[in-house]
Design brief:
By secondary structure, the chain is α+β, with helices and mostly antiparallel strands. It is 18% helix and 35% strand. Strand 2 (42-47) and strand 3 form a beta hairpin.
Length: 297
């Protein structure tokens, strides 16, 4: 990550959170969309239970104070590093190449009673794809791969055609790339439409028990669809609408879910045990269950 600012001076005060998960994970978290922070503007918020102040200087740079350890601006978002012990950034979020892609479409932040880890556990929860989102014929193209603070997995799925009178299904493939438990870069290929989609998802812990979810979607600027450039803005809008629809389906589950460790799993659930063990690195005081390791079911 480029453009990382120096660590702020003030340390956030310890804050007790829900018994389920530590509300103060370490990592990079989105605290604003670049377009929402005008020059000479100020943003006040809470990151991982610690108040912060972020300012856009008249020259365009950023300054900050409070519970933020560093900031970086890239791909249309302002990311803030948080570490409960005040440690400097230990890894980076990759900057995506924006050439050949349409400008991002944003959705307003979703304020959800959950934890960032819970939102991204969906990435490997195979059972919920069919039960919640209506996906079928789920093929794992690349099993979950863990590399330091990054996780990736690839699937091919089938789901109903977006046009109501078309009976055949579409079969997109998608890749999830997590960078910590605050940032996901998802890449979707829809060969039926000659379309590439890039979805950015940020889950940011605020007050204990609450998470702000930010969504942004881009599509390839040279999609091989009938009508080409004329229809692409409408296609982009439709893709964004579908993405938001899927996230809204998940929210009632996140808000009513109780975190259980170790979880009771079946063979259809996916590698949730390994995922939770990987997540343990983002907490200052690890749960002994993570330290000991978990078996996949």
């Amino acid at each position: 990550m480029t453009g990382v600012a120096a660590r702020g001076e003030r340390e956030a005060a310890p804050c007790a959170g829900p018994a389920q998960l530590d509300p103060r994970p370490a990592g990079w978290f989105a605290i604003a969309a670049s377009r929402d922070l005008a020059r000479a503007a100020e943003l006040r918020g809470v990151l991982a239970a610690a108040p912060f102040v972020l300012r856009r200087e008249r020259g365009g740079g950023l300054s900050f104070a409070g519970g933020i350890g560093a900031v970086a601006e890239q791909n249309g978002f302002v990311l803030a590093w948080h570490h409960p012990a005040g440690q400097p950034p230990e890894w980076q979020v990759p900057r995506l190449d924006e050439s050949g892609w349409r400008p991002l479409r944003h959705h307003r932040p979703l304020r959800v009673r959950t934890h960032p880890q819970e939102t991204f556990e969906n990435s490997i929860d195979l059972a919920h794809f069919a039960l919640v989102h209506g996906f079928s014929e789920i093929d794992v193209l690349q099993p979950m791969r863990l590399e330091g603070a990054s996780m990736s997995v690839r699937y091919r799925i089938a789901r109903a055609h977006p046009l109501p009178l078309v009976r055949r299904k579409v079969r997109p493939s998608f890749e999830v790339r997590l960078h910590g438990i605050g940032c996901a870069h998802n890449h979707i290929d829809l060969p039926d439409f000659g379309l590439r989609v890039r979805m950015m998802v940020f889950s940011t812990p605020t007050e204990p028990g609450w998470t702000d979810i930010r969504l942004a979607v881009s599509v390839g600027a040279r999609a091989a669809i009938p009508g080409g450039r004329l229809l692409l803005p409408l296609v982009h809008r439709g893709v964004m609408r579908n993405v938001v629809h899927d996230f809204l389906q998940d929210i009632p589950i996140w808000e009513s879910k109780r975190y259980v460790q170790p979880p009771l799993l079946t063979g259809a659930d996916g590698p949730i045990g390994r995922f939770r063990q990987w997540c343990g690195q983002f907490y200052p005081h690890r749960n002994p269950a993570w330290q000991a390791g978990e078996e996949e079911h």
